[in-house]
Amino acid sequence: MEALTITQDQIYFSEFENPIWPLLAQVSRPSRYGGCEVRPGLRGLAPGDITVCLAFPDVYEIGMSYYGFQVLSPFLNSLPGVAADRAYCPWPDMERLMAEKSIPLASIERSMPLAEFDVLGFTLQHELSYTNVLTMLSLSQIPLAADERGDAHPIVTAGGPGAFVPGPMSKFIDLFCVGEGEETFSEMLETLRETRGMKRGPRLAACAKIRGVYSPAFTPKGARVERRFAASFDGSYTPSSMIIPSVSTVHDRAAVEVFRGCTRGCRFCQAGMTSRPVRERSPESVIDSVREIVRSTGWEEVGLLSLASCDYSGIERVVEALTPALLKEGVTLGLPSLRMDGFSVGLAARLRKVRRGGLTFAPEAGTQRLRDVINKGIDEASIAACLNDAFSMGWERVKLYFMMGLPTETEDDLRGIVDLARSALKTARQNGKKRASVAVSVAGFVPKAHTPFQWERQSGIDELKEKGRFLKSLAGTSKALTLAYHEPEQTFLEGVLARGDERLSGVIEKAWRLGARFDAWTETFDLPRWKEAFDALGVDPASYTRERGEDEPLPWECVDAGVSREFLLSERAASRAARTTPDCRAGCLGCGVNCGKGGLIK
Ligand code: SF4
Description:
The chain has 602 residues and is an alpha/beta fold. 34% of the residues lie in helices and 14% in strands. The chain has 19 helices and 21 strands.
């Protein structure tokens, strides 16, 4: 493989001076603001260009691990007359200094204030990042409320999973892009170019007519906005390189997307329901991309991205073609999501000569009955075989992800979590791994919109705490078996926002004004602030986590995610009977997406 060469003109310590640089000595982690990256050169702005700033509502090192902007940024810059930069949310210490000194938030590439862009493109990857959107707007000196913005302000757009439930952020966002961003975004930018010079209202109204765009102000009440997705993957835009940060990021590796969508049908999984059907890239194209990305970035690991990479039909071909050369160069291929079967573990073993790191699996539930309720699609024999393979092939550490508070869960299901972990340890010992360890991580279940569980009740904070304590007491304390559970308070707030409506916009703003920031971070999350905000607005948060009636209108039904209400209801009924549903790649189940391709598009 050709060696990596980076020339001086590819390394950017931005040539545009950023006014926050004099503050760097006064804040934590100053490197996250430096803007030093290896990336394609910038072209100068031309009159008539549409300028876009892709805005990630979390810190730089989290945002740089988000693959979506690694695709969208070069894609937008490849469009004629479009220039795209990026921006991330400053940590509260930097935010305070910037607010004190009235320094506006600026983009990474051109150090251009966000208020000067034509379009801001937020990504709403999870609900607990919503207050950070407000921080970024406020620091940019852009009115928080969409209806207070004038013609000179940027059009504020948002995409990602949050766009499937637009209610909570509807006060702040002008346009939501529902589904895969490339096509919708380019049509929207074209419309904004054509309507340049017009008043803001007619411009937004014109964009609201684009398929996949939801405008809280201009989409007619009762209308449903259809999710957009690319019909096939091989024709869609693929970046030939990546932006390389100079600081360590959460996922410090290159990435190549191998397919989009998932048809396994796990009933709790929003991504699995809202990204159908599966669209694969050809193995040849994946192989070329991996070679090119290794050559152009120098990363020592390349992740093959998808919702379940072991399901990729071309995986054998890709691994066979690439592994010998990559291993010789000390580069590993990574499979970020392993299924619990022998095939997946065997594959992971072929990808790593040294098996020092751990393997991570997600059985999600502790008993077969509950795994059938959630349609996890794995049985006890596969789990046992998979763990045996992992330890016999040399791994000594296994991490297991579960959920608590799942529909129909009983005490036996919780006991099953610890039993499964103990049986994993036993298997390790039987394989001679005396120093083996099993780490169990348990998250509270959050019913998500557009899934068969969208009508289910969510466990309250006290219930989840009790379940967590019960699990910890069963697991005991030892180095070999550790068990941790997620903060129930954060799970509760996530659940409220995940099935929220427009009334929550006021609560989000109030909580932000009371100081709510980085709610996904345990060190900054503060539930009392949120409680004060709910009280001030007279909103009962528990009304959002209750069971919903099947004939009740749901606030997110302004979005048509593709999968029909009838299909979701039939899946809910199947869950109550612990009846499993097969992957539709074995035969169409009529989910409503009407892909006409048997669930898999190659
Ligand atoms: S329409 Fe049929 S084949 Fe296509 S995703 Fe839905 S169930 Fe699967």
